[in-house]
Amino acid sequence: MELFERMAALRREGQSFALATVIARQAPVSAHLGDRAIVFPDGRMEGFIGGACSREIIRQQALDVLRARHGRLVSIRPDASGSIESSAEHVVVPMSCASEGAVDVYVEPFVEARRLIVVGATPVAEALTRLARSMDYDVWRLVDAREQRDVTAAAAPIGATVATLDALETILREGAARGGEQAVVVASQGHYDEEALESILKSGASYIGLVASRKRGAMVRAHLEERGVAGAAAVRMPAGLDLGARTPAEVALSILAEIVQARPSGAPMQEAAPTAPVEATSAEGRAVDPVCGMSVTIASARHTANVDGVLYYFCCATCRTRFLQDPQPYRVHT
């Protein structure tokens, strides 16, 4: 009951998390049927779903599930290279720990609605708000203070939130802290495009689009670059897929289609980690355990070994010991 109360509290607070539940096991493993753990977007874990190897595997799989926003069955097997193949809904991962047991864990995401921030008081902004709300987006309208009253009258009945431009950076920071995805579309028809984009480009939003002609978009991009604003090249100008849209509703449809295409609900799953020799380190602060192929966070890695000037990272002490006993099959050759 404590775990379910904790989940209910997290939902009330608007926090995203994944719930991992042990649904099958084959001894010897330390997990039992029904063991559960909560995994947060920053990788923190509360609860118990097994020993060191299983724990790290589930941590990484839970982070993938949160990004993909779809549940996944994770089978941890000593014979993972056998006939069972991984798919988007069922991932098979090798168990490299000494116990050589097996466990199945279902990982389920509990995520807040995607946030869409629409900047501007224009027909396209209005149409985009209505369409996005029909798709259960958490929509915020950001407008000049003089426009707020008129925009609120249309936004309130459909559940969209309206705020003024001076709150833009605060709203973006709050959204980033929630750990969810944020898409931002500027559709002010030139009234405050540049001002808004300077703030938006600092936010790390997953999608940033500008509703403008190609000529106008080029002028906005040049202005941002002249001011030294980083990331101006990443802004979609003009926003939306080329669907031949003409009306505001059609333009809104093309923009949402591009947002879905850029960050689809079913993000491609990561391939099952290889067991063949691999590079010791990878991008974005992660490394690959050369023994079992698991992804390891470099900053928090507890098990490492330096061999011939190459630093290797391991998910657990067992993999490190196995590597040091005979490094040759796993080493990075330079």
Q: Helix and strand layout, with pairings?
A:
Layout: H1 2-12, E1 17-26, E2 36-39, E3 45-47, H2 52-68, E4 72-77, E5 90-94, E6 102-110, E7 115-119, H3 123-134, E8 138-143, H4 148-155, E9 161-164, H5 168-178, E10 182-186, H6 193-200, E11 207-210, H7 214-226, H8 248-262, E12 286-288, E13 295-297, E14 303-307, E15 310-314, H9 317-325
Helix pairs in contact: 3-8
Structural class, please?
Answer: alpha/beta
How many domains is the backbone divided into? 3
Q: How much helix is in the residues?
A: 25-40%
The CATH superfamily name of the largest domain is: NAD(P)-binding Rossmann-like Domain
Q: Outline, from the CA principal axes?
A: elongated
Profile the largest sheet: 6 strands, mixed
Number of helices: 9
The order of strands across the largest sheet is: 3-2-1-6-4-5
Provide the CATH architecture of the largest domain. Answer: 3-Layer(aba) Sandwich
CATH class membership of the largest domain: Alpha Beta
Query: How would you spell out the order of helices and strands?
Result: HEEEHEEEEHEHEHEHEHHEEEEH
| Cα radius of gyration in angstroms | 24 Å
- Multimerization state: single chain
β-strand amount: 15-25%
Q: Write the CATH fold name of the largest domain.
A: Rossmann fold
N-to-C span: 54 Å
Number of strands: 15
Mean pLDDT: 84
List the uncertain runs. 265-283
